[in-house]
# Entry
Amino acid sequence: MPILSQQSKIQQTNEESVMRRKIVVGNWKMNGSLASNEALLKALVEKIPQKISTDIVICAPYPYLFQTQSYLKNSSIRWGAQNVAKFESGAFTGEVSVSMLKEFGASYVIIGHSERSTAYCESDENIATKLMMVKQADMTPILCVGESLIEREAGIMEKVVSKQLDTIVEMYGEDIFDETIIAYEPVWAIGSDMAASPEQAQTMHQFIREKLSPNAKVGKSLKIIYGGSVNPQNALQLFSMPDVDGGLVGRASLNASDFQSICHSAEI
Ligand code: PGA
# Structure
């Protein structure tokens, strides 16, 4: 691409990114206890100002949703879950429904995290159904997509991510991505201390945006956040990329100072 049109493209993307409010989501995974959560939630409420230009979300384990709600309800921080059932109710032992999450004030649900798809063989079809359930319940899904290391090394990462999105589009149409947050989480970067470089993240985010944003309903407002070893040292660079609208943060969300610092990096 000629340098001038490349520059105008970046400038155009920059202008578009201005319209999108950033979001930082803490994914506690299967960590915590009543005592440690209390300390963490209290510290977060104290550190994160009431008026902040970034959306901040904590996705806690199910049993701690009530506790999370109690501490966060009068703060600027929202909360959500890390998974949900694909059925509304009934004989599904061990599952938790969208209506149960709503009773605890959850407004976000992480869908299709690679730790779940790998450990519990969750299919793209299942993920698509869950996404629809969350949308119908008026909560915001945070849909995880991303490639494995082997797929990246083979240079097929865009193909892989494309397929993950295509299954959803085939089942429910592109409009489903309106008000859906997409989290690009390269599997090799999760829990590894090997975050994607800002350029690698930007390239994939731009690819996803170019794939979905021509749809009139989805448009330029589609939020695409990055996840995988985000920490206080790399957050600012990652969040400065024009198509990176924030982060999905695992380990660093378990430390109030680190998480606050990452949230602060989104305030740019
Ligand atoms: P990590 O996890 O920040 O610990 O790499 C991210 C995630 O899996 O959401």
